[in-house]
Structure formats: structure tokens, C-alpha cells
Amino acid sequence: MQEKGTISVNTENIFPIIKKFLYSDHEIFLRELVSNAVDATQKVEKLAAMGEYSGDLGDTKVRVAIDKEAKTITISDRGIGMTAEEIKKYINQIAFSGATEFLEKYKDADTSQIIGKFGLGFYSAFMVANKVEIITQSYKEGTQAAHWECTGTTDFEIKQAEKTERGTDIILHVNEDSLEFLEDHRIEGILKKYCKFLPVQIVFGTREVSEKGEDDKEQKVQKDNIINNTEPLWVKTPNDLKEEDYLNFYRELYPLSEDPLFWIHLNVDYPFNLTGVLYFPKVKNDLTLHKDKIQLYSRQVFITDEVKDIVPEFLMLMHGVIDSPDIPLNVSRSYLQSDSNVKKINNYITKKVADKLHDLFKSDRQGFEEKWESIGLFVKYGMIAEEKFYDKAKNFSLLQSVNDDKYYTVEEYLTKIEPTQTDKDQTRVLLYTNEEGKQDTYIQSAKNKGYDVLRLDGPLDSHFIGTIESKFEKVSLKRVDADIVERLIDKGEKVESVLSKSEEEKIVEIFKKALNNDKLDLKVEALPADDMPVTITLPEFMRRMEEMAKSGGG
Ligand code: ADP
Ligand code: MG
């Protein structure tokens, strides 16, 4: 039997268009073909488990091999295979209609945005090959093996094949532009990137290992070089896992990093499907360093580590893995932002993280405080950026006092300072420093008056201060050097200069001359005996305006 035919297309020849569309992301052809092989393998395993296939499953590893001379890459599986009819249905029609649909839908879209985001499946093979062959034997008894061949036009050829073993070989005849894919390290690199956690063993070449032979002597033997860990941590049940398992998995993902502080195992199946593990790394003051560490998977196939729209911005500092078949990976990023599943996933992750932090705070406050330097950054980032997170985090967000180095929740702190630091308008005035060395005399002065000073010197604290002021009623924060202490917390007592107006003006003139600047907005006062001879202050409001301007208005 031999048959020639034309793949029915209602647009023009699709192959040149596929090539053009996916130009920058050619390597995903391997991800697509290997995951098809894995799908086919899992299907036959399932059929066997259900008693619908009684043949011998055999060695079900998926194998990837390169033939440099023939310039071919072969992907072989022992999955369900296909009959000639099935090839016509699944390859010629279905896979093809997917590709056609892709073109129809995205004809007008910005092509640079969709490159690599659309799983073109089987047809992505034509990005690197000028001829593709399928040799396949179905698991169904009494069926004839089939051989399909297509040279990247809409014409295909199908004939009988000799294959007796169940399964499928996909043979790619690599085109002249894609010879890089005949290099071992290139293929191994792609497999390690996309297939590292696929659920069926993937073999690429062999590896030499030492083994004890029958005579008890060490000998070198060649073993299958297995690329993947078929049961990554996130697919396991949390109850079966120990702390060490989470740490080991973290080390596997980020070999050079310090151990994480703690982690959250994600696991939902309604109303969307999501599994994963998110780790809190130790964060120092540089926030940018840690972004883009979360890896996104779909059924254990690596998709991307750009999770910008899937994970809330403030949680991008976290590390780990998210796996969801419900995240639409095959569409443009701008679409992703408005996708309702993505929004739900976003909310779910935010809630999980907030709950985990709250649990930690409640169950081990001391441990929580010790980690605050790192956690505090996430928490403040989240409180500033996300209303929902703020609502939960306000209960465990901490403030540190310079006076006693202790940590307080905002509520606790307000209760603590209420008796001494409430001004005449019933506003609770929180004093803070963001540079202890430079502001030490002011801090001392405040302490002498019996006031408490907060340490707010982190990279997000200037924004965080604004968040607290806007959320808590009758709360105001002032930097210790913003004014003399008596006025920072204005209790209505008169603080008057002991100099006359004209004496003060004279001193202003002296300053202007000395600084050679007569535009200076200066005010001089001589106050009743204080612990400091001279105090120079800059009003809180003016300073904040300046700081805002410097940080870009944020
Ligand atoms: P998808 O995987 O999303 O269904 P593909 O274009 O990757 O789309 O594949 C199209 C169809 O071809 C598959 O659904 C499957 O029925 C069939 N197929 C592809 N590769 C194999 C294989 N190695 N073994 C058996 N069937 C396969
Ligand atoms: Mg596929």
C-alpha cells in the first residue's frame, strides 16, 4: 500500500509561515516532540493499567538520538503508536488545523510577542527539518505499521512500514540552517532545560559508570544517560516530604544559592489546576538581583522563567516552580494579563503566601523576627502594592525600635507609644531614623525626652511610611531630624525663642553671608536650654518631596 496526498489547507502553504513565525525559538521543536512521545507513553501505560492493553509494556523510556552523518535527529517512544488512519487524522488534520488556527487567530497580532508562546506541536519539527518521517506501530493488535513522510510542503506520502515493535519514531532530516542541533551538547542542553522533570524517563546517549561485576571487581559500564527526574518534589504529597527534601530540591534548582528561609507547597485542583513549591530566599537589600527565578511548567514540561504576569509583581522575588495546565501558554503576554485563570492564580498565590507568613508569625514569632530582614522586604513590597495582601499582612508586619531593638506589630507599637507620643490633636506621632550614624544626636535628644525611635532604613521604607500613614487613622511618621523634638510631637506647650526678632534676623544674615547664598530659606530660633547647643533641621514635608522627586515620584 502506498498513498500520496495533499494535506488539506484552506490557506496558502503553511510551512514557510511557521518557519518565519517561530524564527527565534527553534529549539522548542524538541520540547514538543518529546512531550508528544511522553503523552503517547503515558497513554499506553494507562491502557495497560485499566486492562485494555495486555501486551508487554517493555522498556518505555523515550530515546533521543543524533546521527551526524545522516544529519538526522530521531525521537523514539514505546507509546500507543498510530495506524495509517490515525496519522491522517491526528497529524494531517488535527495537528495541522492547530497550526492553521494559530495563523488565522494571530495574523494581525504582533508576531514578536507570540514567538514561542504557541505550542505548534508536531509541526514545529519543520522549523529545523526539511523532511520529517514518522514510522509507527499502533498498540492495537493486528494493525499494520505505517510510514509517513513530508518534505515541508503540503504534500505527504504514506506507506506500509516494517516496524514490529509498538511505538513511534520521529525522524527529522535537519536542514542546513539548523545543523547546530546535531551537536550533542546542544541537544542535551535543550533536554535539560525543557524536559528535566518530565514524567517518563528520557534517554540521550550513554554514560560511563563504575559497577561491581560478578567477580566483585569494579568495572566501567555504559548506562543510559537519563536526563530527567520523573517525580519532582512538587508532584508529591506534602505529608510524605521532609524538610531535607525541600532543601535538596532547592539546591537542585539553584545550585549556587544559599539555602532558602522557608517554602510553601502549592496544591489546588479547583477552580483551576496548580501545583508547585515557592521558596523564600534570603534577600539582602538589592531587590533586582533575585527576580526571574520562578520557573513555570505545564504538566512537568518547562515553559518559561518569565512569570511576570502569572505571579504578583511583589512575589517575583521568590524562587521555585509553578506547574499549571490551566495557564494559557500559547497566547501573547498582553492576553495573559486579562486572562481570568491567571487572575485567580495570582490571587491564590498571594493568599497562600500571606497565610503562610501569618502561620509562621503565630507559631514561631522569634523565628519570624530573626528572618524579618529578608521577609520584611516581601511583606512591605506586598503591602505597598496589593490591597488584599495588605489586609492580611498588617497583622504580622513588624516595626523595630532603636531604643530596645525589639520588634512590634504596628498595633503593638501604637499601643506602646500612645501614652507619650500623642500630640494635642490626638495624632500618634511615630519618630523614625533612616540613618542612625548621621542622625544620632537627634535620636539621643528624642530618647532624652522619653520618646521612642523606629529604625526604618530599608530600601522600601520611604514608601512603606506613606502606606502606614494612609491606612491608620491619626498616625503620622516624622524623621527625628525633621524639627526640634518639642515640635515633632506638638503637645501644645509653647516653645518660644529667647531672642528678639531683630537678633534672629542678624544671625540669618550671618549665615547667608557665610554660605554665600542669599536665596536661602532660613529660620533661626534660640530655644530655652536644651541638651544640644545647635540643631539644624529640615522639615519632614520638604524632605519627603525631595526624596520622592529623586526616586522618580514613586
Ligand atoms: P497535541 O500534542 O497538542 O495534541 P501535536 O501537534 O503535538 O498536538 O500532536 C498531534 C497529535 O498527533 C497528538 O495529539 C497525537 O494524537 C499524535 N501524536 C503526535 N506524536 C505522537 C507520538 N509520538 N505517538 C503517538 N501519537 C502521536
Ligand atoms: Mg504535542
TrEMBL record:
Range of residues in the leader sequence: none
InterPro entries xrefs: HATPase_C_sf, Heat_shock_protein_90_CS, HSP90_C, Hsp90_fam, Hsp90_N, Ribosomal_Su5_D2-typ_SF
Domain of life of the native organism: Bacteria
Keywords of the record: ATP-binding, Chaperone, Cytoplasm, Nucleotide-binding, Stress response
GO molecular function: ATP binding; ATP hydrolysis activity; ATP-dependent protein folding chaperone; unfolded protein binding
CDD domains assigned: HATPase_Hsp90-like (cd16927)
Binding residues annotated for ATP, in chain numbering: 32, 36, 77, 82, 97-98, 168, 333
Pfam families for this protein: HATPase_c_3, HSP90
Family, similarity comment: Belongs to the heat shock protein 90 family.
PANTHER family recorded: HEAT SHOCK PROTEIN 90 FAMILY MEMBER (PTHR11528)
NCBIfam families in alphabetical order: PRK05218.1 (NF003555)
Protein name: Chaperone protein HtpG
Organism encoding this protein: Rapidithrix thailandica
Name of the coding gene: htpG
